[in-house]
Amino acid sequence: MSLSIDDVQRIARLARIAVTENEVIESHKQLNQLFNLIEEMRSIDTTGVEPMPHPQDMLLRLRDDVATATNRREAFQAIAPAVENGLYLVPKVIE
Q1: Which of helix, strand or coil describes residue 54?
Q2: How far, in Å, CA of 1 to CA of 65, rounded?
Q3: Rounded CA gap, 37 and 62, in Å?
Q4: CB distance 1 to 35 below 8 Å
Q5: Each residue of 10-60: pLDDT tens digit?
Q6: Rg (CA), the chain
Q7: DSSP 10-51
Q8: Cα torsion at 26, 30, 36, 39 (round to 10°)?
Q9: Rounded to whole angstroms, how far apart are CA atoms 94 and 67?
């Protein structure tokens, strides 16, 4: 896939970006280099390659999945204007 100069101008116009003629030419060149790189990467056979969770071979430091915050529901609902069955009651805003 490659873009034409007209495509770049159209994209700039749709994005409401003011670009000079030199910027259009430079953007055209850079975008087409990017598309060429993408096409080159797509052509690589990755059959049998396991997806990696991280680009570097390292273990992630993760903490235990344990809730540490205390349950303060009773304290919060004690100061609420209206509560029923553990739910906050609010005024109807849409008729």
Answers
A1: coil
A2: 45
A3: 35
A4: yes
A5: 999 999 999 999 999 999 999 999 999 999 999 999 999 988 877 887 777
A6: 28
A7: HHHHHTT----HHHHHHHHHHHHHHHHHHHHHHTS--TTPPP
A8: -140
A9: 37
H or E element at residue 77? helix 73-78
Q: Which amino acid is at 20?
A: T
Q: How many CA atoms lie within 13 A of 10 on its CB side?
A: 5
Residue 12 half-sphere exposure, CB side, CA atoms within 13 Å?
19
User: CA-CA distance, 3 to 80, in Å (whole number)?
Assistant: 59
Strand partners, 87: 84
What CA–CA distance (Å, rounded) separates 43 from 46? 9
Distance CA 34, CA 2 (A): 9
Beta partners for residue 18, in sequence order: none
Q: Structure pTM?
A: 0.51
